């Protein structure tokens, strides 16, 4: 299977390439209030609206991306599936990797000495729906 691979918080992740719509090099993200730290905001791209998620903040549980010197532009992986749209901002994009179903335990594949954790877009969506939204006192 073709897998689009990226890193987040020193871990390697992959998403089936069929779900990747495009990679945007300079994604201008519009912030939205009262969202979890990993939810960076919204991206309007070619007539479609994408929720923008910090991959490390969601998958690696870091505290969120540091402020960017270039005015908030990030490199984003745009995903489309089942009438849903999502943009992931990883630490690094590695590209497309071919993995076979017999080279790892369920959901984890070995490629060039790295464990790639295969994640489904629906799993990311479920993780997001479990986060708390809105105002909360600190």
Brief account:
By secondary structure, the chain is mostly beta strands.
Mean pLDDT reading = 83
**N-to-C span:** 44 Å
How many domains comprise the coordinates?
1
Strand order of the largest sheet: 8-1-2-10-9
What spatial form do the alpha-carbon principal axes imply? globular
Q: Label the CATH architecture.
A: Beta Barrel
Write the element-wise H/E pattern from the N-terminal end onward: EEEEEHEEEEEH
Number of strands: 10
CATH superfamily label = CheA-289, Domain 4
Largest sheet: 5 strands, mixed
Count of helical stretches = 2
Description of the structure:
- There is one protein chain.
- With 138 residues, the chain is mostly beta strands.
- The chain has one domain (2-129): Beta Barrel (OB fold (Dihydrolipoamide Acetyltransferase, E2P)).
- The protein is 10% helix and 49% strand.
- It is built from two helices and ten strands, in the order E-E-E-E-E-H-E-E-E-E-E-H.
- A five-stranded mixed sheet has the order 8-1-2-10-9.
- The chain starts with a strand and ends in a 9-residue tail after the last helix.
């Amino acid at each position: 299977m073709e897998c689009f691979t990226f890193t987040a918080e020193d871990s390697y992740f992959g998403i089936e390439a069929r779900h990747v719509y495009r990679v945007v090099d300079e994604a201008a993200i519009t912030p939205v209030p009262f969202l979890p730290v990993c939810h960076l905001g919204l991206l309007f791209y070619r007539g479609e609206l994408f929720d923008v998620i910090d991959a490390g903040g969601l998958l690696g549980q870091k505290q969120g991306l540091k402020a960017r010197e270039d005015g908030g532009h990030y490199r984003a992986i745009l995903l489309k599936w089942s009438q849903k749209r999502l943009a992931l901002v990883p630490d690094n994009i590695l590209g497309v990797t071919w993995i076979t179903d017999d080279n790892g335990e369920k959901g984890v594949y070995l490629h060039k000495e790295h464990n790639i954790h295969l994640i489904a877009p629906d799993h990311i969506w479920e993780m997001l729906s479990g986060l708390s939204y809105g105002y909360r006192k600190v």
